[in-house]
Design goal:
This protein is an alpha+beta fold. It is built from 12 helices and 14 strands. α1 packs antiparallel against α2 and α4 packs across α7. A hairpin with a 2-residue loop joins β8 and β9.
Length: 380
């Protein structure tokens, strides 16, 4: 029996005792023999229940403390593994030999593959690549993936009691997600690498992550789909809505874009535009002299700018204005192994006393639901 049930039973016994005492007080008499026997029985039952409850609470407390200790040990173990890998990467960069470096793994093409690197990049992706971060992603080991793309939902309707329901099936085709290599590289001086006072791993990772993230988000807009991500510029013509008359964007154009998207896709959708178009919209006010674009603080403390309640993402690769629900519009993949490659044996680096550090991974993203994309074509 659970603690909650035992406590409820204990409370009902106390209520029964109180009822006996209330009857005695109301009738101004003593307990009868039967009432006194029952009162003592309840006392004994409550005492037994108290012992059982105390034992269960103590056991649950021990289990909770044990689970907490196990979680703490696991977190500490993960942190120690991460610190060990960072020391291994530092040894790798400085061409030092050490136990940490020897225990690390390499990919088939000679890239160092730290386990924590993938998780750290995924964590930072929301900051450095907010568009790609919203795409639902699979993590294949090798090869390509085929995912279904909905072309025709089919139909349903009312039929008579004796009539057959037509099995009007929906129509789908497939898109292929390939392992397209995306990478970033920086050149470090040997002096910087050997400087013990510089966190060369943290500095390198942060810079490489940001560069790779920016490249992924630009590809989410401009990508051709050939050996790269399929960008928003490839959205089919039925997604396009032209500005009303001229190159000057009107708020009615944006309202038209929002109203043309089905309500099921509006929740979670984002505006994507360049800074010039954002600044134009940021100056617009309604009839009550209120700005259309609002500044709000998210739950995680980040500041977000919103139009019609939908978040605005600014990316200067966007020539048009997009309204996209990436969770519905796209399917993507990112290979779990993110590789780190040190190049210093070539003539250029050797003569300059530098080292080239390359971070690369394999990713893809394809449009699978055009109805979750709306494009406002901004006229020149």
């Amino acid at each position: 029996m659970k603690i909650k049930e035992l406590i409820e039973k204990r409370n009902s016994l106390i209520d029964e005792q109180n009822a006996l005492l209330d009857a005695v007080e109301t009738e101004v008499r003593a307990l009868t023999n039967d009432e006194e026997v029952r009162f003592n029985e309840i006392d004994n039952e409550i005492a037994e229940l108290d012992k059982t409850i105390d034992k269960l609470e103590a056991r649950n407390k021990n289990e909770s403390e044990k689970e907490s200790d196990e979680n703490h040990d696991e977190e500490r173990g993960n942190e120690m593994n991460k610190e060990k890998e960072i020391r291994g990467i530092t040894q790798y960069l400085r061409r030092e030999q050490g136990e940490e470096l020897r225990s690390m793994t390499y990919s088939g093409n000679g890239h160092l593959v730290p386990e924590y690197l993938h998780g750290e990049f995924v964590e930072k992706m929301e900051e450095v690549a907010p568009l790609f971060a919203d795409v639902p992603k699979l993590t294949p080991v090798s090869g390509t993936l085929r995912v279904a793309r909905e072309k025709d939902l089919g139909s349903a309707g009312f039929v008579g009691e004796s009539e057959s329901i037509s099995p009007n099936d929906f129509v789908t085709d497939t898109v292929e997600l390939k392992q397209n290599r995306a990478g970033s590289a920086i050149v470090l001086s040997q002096k910087l690498i050997n400087d013990a006072g510089v966190d060369v791993v943290g500095y390198s990772n942060d810079l490489l992550f940001r560069r790779l993230g920016y490249a992924l988000d630009r590809a989410m807009i401009k990508g051709t789909g050939a050996d790269t991500i399929e960008g928003l510029v490839n959205a089919p013509e039925e997604c396009e809505i032209e500005t009303a008359a001229s190159s000057v964007i009107a708020i009615d154009d944006l309202m038209n874009v929002a109203s043309s998207m089905k309500a099921v896709y509006q929740t979670g959708a984002k505006w994507v535009m360049n800074r010039k178009n954002y600044q134009t919209l940021a100056a617009m006010k309604d009839g009550n002299n209120h700005f259309y674009i609002t500044r709000e603080q998210e739950v995680d403390g980040r500041i977000a700018y919103k139009l019609f309640g939908l978040t605005i993402e600014i990316n200067d690769a966007a020539e048009d204005i997009y309204l996209v629900n990436f969770a519905h519009a796209y399917k993507g993949m990112i290979k779990k192994e993110i590789g780190l490659k040190l190049i210093d044996a070539d003539q250029t680096n050797a003569l300059a006393g530098t080292v080239t550090l390359v971070l690369d991974t394999y990713v893809d993203a394809k449009i699978v639901q055009p109805e979750a994309i709306r494009v406002l074509k901004v006229k020149e």
